[in-house]
Amino acid sequence: MISQPENLSRPSTRHIRFELAPSTMFNIVIIIAGLWLLFKLLPVFLVLIAAFFIVETLNPLVHWMEEKKVKRGLSIAIVFVSLLVIVVVTAIFTIPALLAQASSILDQEPILRIQLADRLTGFPFSEALAKWLRNFKYAGVMNVASATSFSMEALGFITYALGAIFLALYLMIDRDRMRGGLYAIVPRTHHIRLSRVMMNLQTIVGAYIRGQVITSLSIGIFILILLLACGVENALALAVFGSIADILPYIGIFLPMAAAVLSAAPHGAAITIVVLAAMFLYMEFESRVLVPRVYGKALRLPSTVVLISLLAGGTLMGITGALLALPFAAAVMMLIEELRVQLPGEQEQMADEVLREKDDLGEKEYERRTEGVSAEQSAAIAVEISGDRAKEETESLKKAEP
Questions:
Q1: Distance between CA 74 and CA 78 in Å, rounded?
Q2: How far is CA 158 from the centre of its chain?
Q3: Which pLDDT score, from 0 to 100, does residue 146 have?
Q4: In this predicted structure, what is the pLDDT of residue 147?
Q5: Does 106 map to a domain?
């Protein structure tokens, strides 16, 4: 028998060693530190985003008043004062009625619970639920610690909200200087593209706000007609509450549903079932038909992208993430298009070449017109050039339509 050498009879082992260059390690540390800082400063970024939303919501009104020969400062003052008056008047006419309705429901709760238990007693499958309703007892009053925690959270929310409002006011008043500072830190060769991106962001936010107004008005009108038809008290206050609560994704539809059903409970089981069924049908209509079509058309997003964005945003950041999911998704799609990012498997089209040539011509015109001018004037010129190009593109699309 021929014996094999020992080194051939055993499988050879190879050692793989990873070595990171100092520059790579430094970049990893910077990325981790940046993510940590972003997490810590998340409330600040949310305040900035909220201020930007407020600015883009009120800007069309300010521009409209400026076109009517009203000075910008006076236009901003009129818009903010009008908004404050609307909020105060809505609170005056809504909050007392809602509190009275809630107090009435709480007073009648034991009677309604016993009546519901009596109705469930006659069915074998609901006997246990009826027994549980009769023996149900509240856990007790909120303790001092939880009340203090809730008060601090509410105070923090109010503080952030006021901060966003005042920041939005400052951004609108000092628009030219803030815009000039932004353009001063960006290379001049990218000013036209920056102005177009900012213009598209304004369009996205405006479309999102219009979509939110449509959905809020829809559920408010629906609740008002439904409760008036069923003879439920304080229908207008409940409709306003439903419109405001509809801003919150996912739970926004359940809050007015619960309020409407509880308000209809004293009117009997038939009215309560009708209100519950109607609200459930509307919830399905809004989530499956209205939201995808309204936001998808306004933000140019497919219905599947709308639903996936809402789910992803709500899973990652809760209510705040769901609120920002749609404009964020639309902004990402816009940036991919504006920055000419070529996706995997995508080939460059003739239209992309035409757009790139237009970008080059726009940059050359901008450099010619902004030679020796200040950053604020340069920003205004960039916005003007981008606006003229957007109008040309809109007119060409209208002419291309059959």
A1: 6
A2: 18
A3: 60
A4: 58
A5: yes
CA 224 remoteness from chain centre: 25
* pTM, full prediction: 0.67
Q: What's the number of domains the chain is made of? A: 1
**356 falls within a domain:** no
Q: What is the pLDDT of residue 184?
A: 78
Residue 205: inside a domain = no
Distances (CA, A) of 256 to 110, 237, 241, 284: 22, 11, 7, 14
- Whole-number pLDDT of residue 225: 92
Distance CA 205, CA 58 (A): 11
CA dihedral 16, 21, 27, 32 (to 10 degrees): 40
Spatial distance between the Cα atoms of 170 and 80, rounded to a whole number of angstroms: 12
Query: 10-residue block means of pLDDT along the chain (402 residues)?
Result: 51 61 75 79 79 83 86 88 86 79 72 71 70 66 58 74 84 81 77 80 81 86 91 84 78 79 81 88 84 73 74 72 77 74 52 63 74 74 74 62 54
Check residue 300 and give left, alpha or beta (phi > 0: left; psi -120 to 50: alpha). Answer: left
Structural domain includes residue 236? no
**What is the residue range of 161's domain?**
42-136+146-173
| 141 Rama class: left (phi>0) / alpha (psi -120 to 50) / beta | beta
